[in-house]
Amino acid sequence: MNKDIRKIAVLTSGGDAPGMNAAIRAVVRTGRFYEIEVIGVQLGYDGLIDKQFRVLDARSVANILSRGGTFLKSARSDRFRTQEGRKQAFENIQSEQIDALVVIGGDGSFTGADIFSREHDVPVIGIPGTIDNDLAGTDFTIGFDSACNTAVEAIDKIRDTASSHQRVFFIEVMGRDAGFIAVNAAISGGAGAVIVPEHEWTIEQLIEKLQVAAQNKKSSNLVIVAEGSHLGNAFKIAKKVQKQIDYFDIRVTVLGHLQRGGAPSNLDRVLASRLGVAAVEGLKEGKSKVMVGIINQQLVYTPIHEAIKLEKPLIDEEFRIARILST
């Protein structure tokens, strides 16, 4: 699959993440540098099926580096899950003489890209854009750092209220299957406990920790909960704790989609720019069905099926640090 690449399509799929626009910008400007035309696809895979294409040039991506979200819009496509939908998308690509595809998204987006590439022999490279940081093959995904910064900013403000009223706050952050945001936010926000899908807690253990903190005259406490916790969401956990001990003044805050929005951090802008350049250069070199990432500051290309299937473990050292500092 070493055909000459003259025209590339780029799309964003799945949940949005701060830094996606920076990645699009990098793809477009790198394409211009190598005299490759870049086509933007609106609304993810649905845009491929409905042929919602627009030519992108250097001016099209001016002033989007600092913007959150994705100016190409994003969506999850049920139609692209079908052979008929993917066939229509391929016919649209052929009619526009598009040689390759860059997909910015997470594991669901990459699953679709991998199947599409294998079915229709279209060169595809994935750029990891998800706040969950749950893809193997890269130390960080685009949007993770920004989401952590947003969570910590909110946690700092909640702590002010918690301290003023001597309350225990359960703060729920995103992380359906992974606790990366929760652990990092717990360390940065000085939380008293962190509950993540990767580590099992019991309500009794949590209550014991809260009681020890109270005995040590801790005037307030924050418990960070990843939304995918096996104990349930923050409201369920708070209810279980309150049922067993009623002397804590308990409140719950769910940060929700607040974590997805806002301007990307410096780290995410640089990461997205590096990965966007690498995606175009990888296609030029004949690479396909791979995800571009950064490991130990080195650029790497990982087969998409490995990036999806290999479990990215939560860094135990970070979890250990969070537990030590929570005392």
How would you explain this protein's 3D organization?
By secondary structure, the chain is of the alpha/beta class. The chain folds into two domains: 183 residues, 3-Layer(aba) Sandwich (Rossmann fold); 117 residues, Phosphofructokinase domain (Rossmann fold, 3-Layer(aba) Sandwich), CATH 3.40.50. The chain has eleven helices and eleven strands. Strands 3-2-1-4-5-10-11 form a seven-stranded mixed beta sheet, sandwiched between helices. Strands 7-8-6-9 form a four-stranded parallel beta sheet, with helices on both faces. α1 packs parallel to α9, α6 packs parallel to α11 and α7 packs across α8. The longest helix has 22 residues. The radius of gyration is 22 Å and the shape is elongated.
Which descriptors apply to this entry?
single chain; 327 residues; alpha/beta; Rossmann fold; 7-stranded mixed sheet; 11 helices
Q: Indicate the mean pLDDT.
A: 92
Number of domains: 2
Helix/sheet category: alpha/beta
**How would a textbook summarize the main sheet?**
7 strands, mixed
- Care to count the β-strands? 11
Distance between the termini: 56 Å
Number of helices in the DSSP assignment:
11
Q: Which consecutive residue ranges, at least 5 long each, have pLDDT under 50? A: none
Using only C-alpha atoms, the radius of gyration works out to: 22 Å
What's the shape? Answer: elongated
> Looking at the chains present, what oligomeric state does this protein adopt?
single chain
- Strand sequence of the main sheet, in spatial order? 3-2-1-4-5-10-11
Q: What fold name goes in the CATH topology slot of the largest domain?
A: Rossmann fold
Order of helices and strands: EHEHEHEHEHEHEHEHEHEEHH
For the record, the CATH architecture of the largest domain stands as 3-Layer(aba) Sandwich
- Fraction of residues in helix: 40-55%
CATH hierarchy, class of the largest domain:
Alpha Beta
